[in-house]
Here is the input.
Amino acid sequence: MEFSFSNKAKSLTFILMAIGLISIIGGYAMDSSDHHNRFWSALYVNGLFFTFVSFGALFFYILQYATESAYSVLFKRIFEGIVTFMPVGLVVVLLVHLVGTFHGHHIFHWMDPEVFDESSPHYDAIIANKAAYLNIPFFWVRTLVYIGVFMIFAITFRKRSLLEDKQPDIAIHKKNYVRSGLFLVFFAVFSSTLAWDWLMSIDTHWFSTLYGWYVFSGMWCTAMIVGLVMALYLKAKGYLPQVNSSHIHDLGKWVFALSFLWSYLWFSQFMLIWYSNIPEEVTYYITRIEHYRVPFFTMFVVNFVVPMILLMSRDAKRNPTFLIGVATIIFIGHWVDVWLLVTPGVMGAGAHLGLMDVGMFLGFLGAFVFVVLNSLTKAPLVPVNHPYLEEGVHHSI
Amino acid sequence: MYDDDHTLMEAAKKLRDLGIKVKTVYSPFPIHGIDPIIGVKRTRMAIVSFMFGITGTSLALLGMWYFMIHDWPMNIGGKPSFSLIENLPAFIPVTFEFTVLCAAHGMAITYLLRNGTLPGMPASNPDPRTTDDKFVMEVHTSDNHGHSGDELKDILKDSGIIEISEREIES
Here is the structure.
């Protein structure tokens, strides 16, 4: 069945994008911080957050080939659709990196050459010691390699998926299986290192070995939330008649389990640093707890306790209204999480969650929904010749 | 006795539609979707596991409060606050593990006890072949007074059954 993008939904996404555009222009004009750092970090937060959703979706989508899962076949196209946002989001991320490279803003403190120069008053011995890794050319090589690899896998998997619709051939599926294993190897390394490069290097002095998994668990969880909401939306519109309550239950379980994974990693990072109490490690938390206490702890409680309490029972995971409510709350919770990964590192004490952030979030949300729904119209919503389709349709738990 | 889970499920559906009560089904593996057909009530295992989990959480916190705060106050991580709440992050891993331990063991033991399958308990299945590749459906005449034993047999014969045996059951 082909999905048609209703005019009502289209105009709604355009309204959201207009709000986002106004926030971007207004935010830039009204931002009085040095080099518009506040504006650039807000743009970076939103670009990254939605790019991460598509990274998480790409990971989950390809993981389904590695595990040869049947239950997820009906959702395959939804995750393919989410992945198509990746290039759009990456444009924003790369723009922020590029402006930073030419010193248009100071999100990345280490991009300033003076911190490496011993004769300069801004010389920073700790950062200078990291020069072998944290330098602009190597940063760009890494960034382009991550993006190149992810894009190649995203494009080739999509191509084979559409090809399979036209000509049933088990060789396509076998190829996907082999390629999926290869992708997971790349993703395991790159998901960690890109979190160091794009996020952890903002707090240049500080480091945490757990950081990559923590960021990855957040992006995976958000991707599952988006996939679940999309599936419920399409089902409510009558597009996925074969999706039964067992399929929805499984996606609900993913959101529940990954919320736990995320909370587990958040807490593990926090507890070890809290316990050892070493000055160079606690700086990260001191900034956040002293100046961002309310969003910092509210975000953790919301992202952990809300899904734990509300999604624990089986009935809750089979109730669409309930799921949409919980998913919306923790979706916002994870956005605040990414906001807190970036902003305190850039702005120190002087930032508050404001209208600019919310406006940009809505704008990016509009663009995201537009791109995803638009790509869903381009292929049948249920893959026609997937070898596990029949098994997936009869999924029952 | 049946040699296919699907045939058995269809037969059970037919019996239910005729108003005949199936006592129970023995199978080497779980048959998805059989529970509502033969009238098995929804499991209360989830509630039990939640209660075991809460017990574990409380016991762990109570224990650590007694050992580390009350009976022999400890300086935890260089923070001599001697308060359970302020030292809570240090206690979370143990609390978490103990919650999981209690919930998992409690659930497993409850399950085995309730099924009568603890090690050493006498087996209750009527035919050992149900642990291999056969499926047995038990229908009691005492549950189905509207039908005589022969009638039940006639109905069952048409359902793809491979073997029918009749037994006197005490009690």
